[in-house]
Design a protein that fits this description.
With 74 residues, this protein is of the alpha+beta class. It is built from one helix and four strands. The chain has one domain: Beta Barrel (OB fold (Dihydrolipoamide Acetyltransferase, E2P)), CATH 2.40.50.
């Protein structure tokens, strides 16, 4: 999924982004993660993908920790 965004303004170390073609939603984003030299009014493309491997790994880790806690409390 690719989202169009425009930097509306900066508030300290965060940028307020207007999202979508109609700029009808907004998000606050750490400016440290923006490309160097971006400024108010710059247009961005944000790509979001699901990391299935990391999700599965985190689920296994959580299940393992929960099992260890249950065993310790038995």
């Amino acid at each position: 999924m690719t989202i169009q965004a425009v930097i509306d303004r900066y508030e300290g170390d965060r940028a307020v982004l207007l999202l979508g073609e109609k700029e009808s939603a907004s998000a606050v984003f750490p400016s440290a993660f923006l490309p160097p030299g971006t400024d108010e009014g710059d247009h961005l493309k944000i790509t979001i993908t699901r990391d299935r491997r990391a999700t599965a790994r985190a689920g296994r880790e959580a299940a393992s920790l929960l099992a260890a806690l249950r065993e310790r409390n038995s």
